[in-house]
Please model this.
Amino acid sequence: MKQTYRSATAFVLGWIWVAFVAFNAFDLTIRYSGKSSLVAGAVLGVLTALVYVTALRPATVVAEDGLRVRNPLRTTFLPWSAIDDVQVSHTINVTYGDKVLRAWTPQASARERAKASRRGAPREQRGRYRTEPVLSKGERAAQEAMAGKTHADWVAEQITERVETAKRRDEPAGQVRAVWAPDALAAGVVAVALVVLAVLL
Model:
């Protein structure tokens, strides 16, 4: 089973931007006014390429055969047996051999970390009477399990579990593959072409 983890906020904002650009591209086509329309199109093209590679493309994909990390310009595939360690700072850092792969998403910001810490702390009772419902035993256990953990911590735990399972099964070491992302490079080429077109015409 394949699971894809990414920044939900960046992903939603990225698609909102794409919808905005689609509307404006249609408008620029209908009301074409020469050089100014080309310049506006080039600006939209460059910004859309940046939004694509930083908000829409990055993802951490947990699959049966290994971990696939899609960063802005590169995609790295790591078989489970090749991973030595997984740690979380502001990014998920995956150690394999003498190298460290930093996953672009999901990230753990200082704000998210502080919120997670507050979530695990007991709440102060204000006033004489209890106004909040009493949590069941299962709800308390879930709250304690998630105390102080961010989305990045949770994803790192999923990766660690897969790595440990692969090592228990003594799976043969696969090959690590890191390749340039053709979709990201194509977005950059299109953006540069729009800029050149706007300058030359």
Q: What stands out?
A: The radius of gyration is 23 Å.
